[in-house]
Amino acid sequence: MAAENAVESAAGHGPTAGDYIVHHLTHLQNHKSTGVFDLSVFNLDSLFFSIVLGVLGCWLLWTAARKATSGVPGRWQAAVEFLVEMVDNQAKGIVHNVKSRQFVAPLALTVFVWIFLMNAMDLLPVDLLPFIWEKAFGAAGGDPHHAYLRIVPTADLSISLGLSVAVLLLCLYYNVKIKGLGGWVHELFTAPFGNHWALYPFNFAMQLVEFIAKTVSHGMRLFGNMYAGELLFLLLALMGGAWGSVSLGGALALSVLHVIGGWAWAVFHILIITLQAFVFMMLTLVYIGQAHDHH
Question: Which residue, among 117, 111, 115, 62, has the nearest Cα to 288 in the 3D structure?
Fold first, then answer.
């Protein structure tokens, strides 16, 4: 769908700018939700792109490992070796259990690559894949322009919170594995205020708040940054579709701003998508490392 269709007036021949943005922020789902907590509804676009990008990330790492040589490495091998060394050094400084680190370090590497690839989908033109989807399969749900399709999985709260909940489950697993079930339960009721029966309810409440706060903030940080980036790209796309809705001079000016602003934001967004992947990976290591600490 061309962005210029979106800036026509509601009384004209196309959707408004608001309609365009709402359309692009609507997921491709298996059916319409009947309520806020309708667990039978799946965001098919987020699931598809996250799975495909996860497989792609694993394949890229596998090809680098398969073609690794002891001699002078190629560019791809050198890049992967740098990434592996960086993640391994971070893991050594946070997770001090060597046996746990044999699983946690590769996990952190996978998390970083996976989230980076999902974030990088934001760099594709906002109308490209929806347009291809329309041409290949036709408009979905009776929509007159193109199918609903969101291509940035991490801009979907269910995906980002799903990742953070997976980290929470790993933290619970290592709490039990390292401290034992009894030791962990004892810690739940004796930390952080001390081992006294009068403090047990307050300790337990604080522990629950800590687990919930870490999990929610872990996922919401990633979601918020990627959602904001996606929204800004939509606004920039609207600037390039002003033809027919403003004067010729105004349309030309907005088109120039569209090109310059889109390029500048895309360059800056490369830093954001990399930083958000790194932050999520580091917090994963920190939370799992905390699960190994005794109080």
Answer: 111
Nearest to 29 by CA among 134, 137, 141: 141
Domain that holds residue 231: 3-33+42-291
d(CA 170, CA 197): 29
The answer to whether the beta carbons of residues 292 and 95 sit under 8 Å apart is yes
Residue with tokens 């006294």, as numbered in its chain: 196
pLDDT along the chain (295 residues), means of 10: 45 67 87 72 93 96 87 86 94 94 96 97 90 70 63 95 97 95 94 91 95 96 95 84 57 73 89 96 96 82
Residue in 217, 245, 247, 255 annotated catalytic? 217
97 is catalytic: no
Whether 75 is catalytic is no
Catalytic residue, from 221, 245, 247, 255: name it: 221
pTM passes above 0.85: yes
Instruction: Please pick, among 43, 100, 119, 225, the residue that the annotation labels catalytic.
Output: 225
CB atoms within 10 A of CB 134: 18
Q: How many domains does the chain have?
A: 1
Q: Is 225 a catalytic residue?
A: yes
Contact 58, 39 (CB under 8 A): no
8-state DSSP, 35: S
